[in-house]
Specification:
This protein has twelve helices and 15 strands. The protein has 369 residues and is an alpha/beta fold. The protein has two domains: 17-242, Aspartate Aminotransferase, domain 2; 245-368, Alpha-Beta Complex (Aspartate Aminotransferase, domain 1). Bound molecules: ligand T4K. Residues 8-12, 61-63, 85-86, 88-89, 131, 157, 159-160, 181, 183-185, 194, 311, 313, 315 line the site of ligand T4K. It holds the Pfam family DegT_DnrJ_EryC1.
Length: 369
């Protein structure tokens, strides 16, 4: 008999409750529960080390670092970005009064196609905001060459790229800044949370002011900042979760290996392989359905899986460029974004997390095979 248990696309990595209680007691004793406390500082330190980055600033979620990075770099006018992402990427531009300019993606990686960026640059372009979608690294070298040639800033939305490295170096060191999300659904989570990664102390200081209303000391406000601080409870929770992240990524890798092994034989289903020289985090496992060869459309498969309690997700469908806020933009036409449309119309992200059992994995595969 089939089990009624839902196999969800992800499941949060949770710290040991007894260990968390010890830290909570300490926080209670300290009576310092937010505004850059002890655990906030400790987590920033631990993350710099784990992620191999020089400076990091914690945030209360993964959307506010996007918005704040644009403020900090004083980005205006137009920003070139990808339509194939979670809607927060483009919303951060909107919240800064910036016009998003969508560029199509590379069909192999799902990331912005560097070959199409130059044609989208105008006199108003001030920055590029690519996304390492599913944690697959963008072509950061090519993007930087273009940015340098035209004097543009680059802010990477690295919400999916926690711990991803290329040639032994963190992908988070590319561009001018990178943002992270520590949402419950991510490889590393602080329930809600996020961060900005930067290269120098001066920028870190400025970001720390901006996330605390612009305060630079008790009586001085240096910029119209916002409140996007992470509290002590979530910082402590994050410290504990960081200790088990490597193990969780290894468990995810095990899932990816089995999925690939089984799906290589299924006609009409494709997926992404590991990239040479890249340390992946296995944050998502997207498959792409070719309806003709597979004999079923993506949506037919998606709903059939749901009927059997396998809850994949169609990340990232619909494309951001099709939402009412953005579809009026000249760059939002389907003719400008054929690869992004093809990917959004064929994708299902399979359940992918540390707690999937071998039985769960086989159940997911059964639905597809
Ligand atoms: N940039 C990119 C590229 C992003 O992908 C995101 C967020 C951001 C920026 C913004 O970062 P944040 O401000 O969110 O930190 C989820 C997440 O809410 C969102 O963080 C994430 N990307 C996006 C891709 O996915 P939903 O609406 O699909 O999540 P939800 O609530 O349907 O959860 C999915 C599944 O996860 C559930 O079916 C079961 C499981 N789950 C979820 C939660 C919240 C649990 O088991 N426990 C939980 O507590 O958006």
């Amino acid at each position: 008999m089939e089990s009624n248990e839902l196999i969800t696309v992800t499941s949060p990595l949770l710290p040991d409750l007894a260990e968390l209680n010890v830290l909570l007691e300490d926080i209670w004793n300290r009576k310092w529960i937010t505004n850059s406390g002890y655990y906030h500082k400790e987590l920033e330190k631990a993350l710099c080390e784990y992620l191999k980055v020089p400076y990091i600033s914690l945030f209360t979620n993964g959307t506010l670092p996007l918005i704040t990075s644009l403020q900090a770099l004083r980005i205006t006018g137009e920003v070139i970005t990808t339509p194939y992402s979670f809607v927060a990427t483009t919303h951060s531009l909107w919240w800064n009064g910036i016009k998003p300019v969508f560029v199509d993606i590379d069909p192999q990686t799902g990331n912005i196609d560097p070959d199409k960026i130059e044609a989208a640059i105008t006199l108003k372009t001030t920055a590029i905001m690519p996304v390492h979608v599913y944690g697959k690294p963008c072509d950061t070298k090519r993007i930087q060459e273009i940015a340098d040639k035209y004097g543009l800033k680059v802010i990477y939305d690295a919400a999916h790229a926690f711990g991803v490295e290329v040639g032994g170096e963190s992908i988070l060191n590319a561009g001018d800044m990178s943002t992270l999300s520590f949402h419950a659904t991510k490889v590393f989570n602080t329930i809600e949370g996020g961060a900005l990664v930067m290269h120098d102390e001066q920028t870190k200081k400025r970001i720390d002011y901006l996330k605390n209303f612009g305060f630079a000391g008790e009586t001085e406000v240096v910029a119209p900042g916002i409140n996007s601080k992470m509290d002590e409870v979530r910082s402590a929770y994050g410290l504990l979760n960081l200790k088990q992240t490597d193990k969780a990524i290894e468990a995810r890798r095990h899932v990816a290996v089995r999925y690939r092994e089984a799906l290589r034989e299924v006609d009409g289903i494709t997926f992404m392989d590991d990239m040479p020289g890249v340390k992946h985090n296995y944050s998502y496992f997207p498959i792409f359905v070719d309806a003709e060869r597979y004999g079923m459309t993506r949506d037919e498969l998606y709903f059939k899986m749901r009927e059997h309690n396998v809850l994949g997700r169609r990340y990232f469908y619909p494309l951001i460029s099709t939402f009412s806020t953005y579809r009026g933009l000249e760059s939002a036409t389907p003719e400008n974004l054929p690869n992004a449309h093809r990917m959004a119309d064929s994708v299902i992200c399979l359940p992918m997390h540390h707690a999937l059992s071998d039985e769960d994995i086989e159940k997911v595969l059964e639905q597809i095979k």
